[in-house]
Amino acid sequence: MTAISQPPMSTTLHPTRVARVVTLAFLLVNMVVVHAMFFLAGPPAYNVLGSIGRLLGLYLAFAMVVQLLLIARLPLLDRGFGMDHLTVWHRWTGFAIFWLAVLHPVVVLLGFATYSNVSFLSETVTLSRQMPVLLGMIAVAVMVVVVAFSVQAARKRLPYEVWHTVHLLLYAAILLAVLHQVYKGTSFTSNALTQIYWWGLWALAIGALLIGRLFLPLVRNARHRLRVAAVVPEPDNAVSVHITGRNLHLLPARAGQFFLWRFPGHNPWWQVNPFSLSAAPDGRSLRLTAKGVGTTSSGLRGLRAGTRVFAEGPYGALTASQRVRESTLLIAGGIGVTPIRALLEDPDLTDVVILYRVRDATKAVLIGELQNLAQARGARLHLLSGRTGPDNNPFAPANLATLVPDITERDVFICGPPPLTLAVLDTLRRLGVPKRQVHAELFRLAGG
């Protein structure tokens, strides 16, 4: 029998493509406008260093706007790229802000010192007596502290509460930077048009942040009044938490997505964890399943029915809306099975193969549900157990191609521990699976 390749699905309105076009257009247009503002500003700076410092200041301000939009968790970006990609961009944007925040005042002060023929330190002391300049210096100092505490080596040694509190200082730094711009910004105060553009850009970023991180979560939680309905122990020290509420059919959640969960009264407010939905939302209830590996996840077993739940989301791009082919391969590792199990319920996924990797088959979480769903849907389920080694590596290219011979014709959804996910991604690349057919998401949350 000759295998017939399936035609690719239409990707005209694919969320990733839309997000890429909008993001690229936003960055290009604004960078053009920023440079136009610089060259069309009033009288030139006192010397070359002053001009460079002014341009660095514009870059810094725009990078801060981009950072606010990244942590605002805009649905367009989240559904198009996934929060793991946004978190990586958040981190690199943060380091860019750090270096710009250091270089901008240093170059400006060097320019003034050269112009006035005084030492750098003397000029710094003189200008720090001006309130707008002092506000900018304090903002830079705060940014340096935040970045120092965000370096991986430092973060590993700090309690989450300390790191989170320090990270929140970034908002204070942004406020001080905005005040500094009000008094010292010259490139965007030369005429009414540039002022409207610049402050409109800041209003967009701050408005998106307040709506996405404060207003929308408060409104949704007030509307749905989520509470714990039941807590069910699962194999391998895992637990499923069933949650009910009002008007859950209005919650725009999809199989494969996750929420940031808080349990006020049971845990302190700062304890928040990203747990995926382990069942497709049905408009009546939600379910999360977590393995007890940390303080919050281990404490889920102690939840009582009726406990209030505060959820922020839904987030994540690991949904059926990402598919570009008719056939699907779902790959799960360990507790990463939770969004995969939910995706198995999505009717938009067809001709499904599931690979579930666990060390011990007797401790496979939700395996009974997977087997029942697979049977009901006519899907093929492979439970891959045992320690990984030379003689047992199902995700080696040859072995994976044997398990799923038509893998290049399928969308591949992956969720599992980072080592497993990265190994599978490498194998898919070697097998020639087109990148647009590969969908994976790692839970690496941005702070703020």
Automatic annotation (TrEMBL):
GO CC aspect terms: membrane
Superkingdom of the organism of origin: Bacteria
A molecular function (GO) term: 2 iron, 2 sulfur cluster binding
Pfam family, any one: Ferric_reduct
Membrane topology label: Multi-pass membrane protein
Keywords attached to this entry: 2Fe-2S, FAD, Flavoprotein, Iron, Iron-sulfur, Membrane, Metal-binding, Oxidoreductase, Transmembrane, Transmembrane helix
Listed CDD domains: FNR_like_3
Protein's cellular compartments: Membrane
Residue span(s) of domain FAD-binding FR-type: 221-321
Cofactor(s) listed in the protein's UniProt record: FAD
PANTHER family, A to Z: 1,2-PHENYLACETYL-COA EPOXIDASE, SUBUNIT E, NADH OXIDOREDUCTASE HCR
Name used for this protein in its record: Predicted ferric reductase
